[in-house]
Amino acid sequence: MGIYSNTLLEFRCPLCGHVNAISVDTLKDMYKEQREPCQQCHQMLEIIPANGVNDQINLIVSEA
Ligand SMILES: [Zn+2]
Fold first, then answer.
1. Going by C-beta distance under 8 Å and a sequence separation of 6 or more, which residues neighbour residue 37?
2. pLDDT of the residue at 56
3. What pLDDT was estimated at residue 1?
4. Which of 37, 42, 54, 64 is the most exposed place for a label (fewest CB within 10 A)?
């Protein structure tokens, strides 16, 4: 993911609506779920990085 290095991606907590940020560097594999807690309500969230339009990465977020 070279060109994305140090880029922060935002994802919204489905529970409280807080917008969290995650570094692209911490995303290991596309389409592989990862678990990160919401920074506000501490709900554990399941995040799946997916290819979006214009070579962007979309994060699909759900409650873990
Ligand atoms: Zn939350």
1. 43, 44, 45
2. 85
3. 46
4. 54
What residues flank ion ligand 1 with Cβ within 5 A? 13, 15-16, 18, 38, 40-41, 43
* DSSP for the chain, written as a single string: -GGGTT-EEEEE-TTT--EEEEEGGG--STT--EEEE-TTT--EEEEEEEE-GGG-EEEEEEE-
- Residue 14 CA to ligand 1 center (angstroms) comes to 7
Residue range 6-60, pLDDT digits in tens = 788 999 999 999 999 998 888 878 899 999 999 999 999 999 999 988 888 899 9
Write phi, then psi, for 20 (nearest 5 degrees): -95, 160
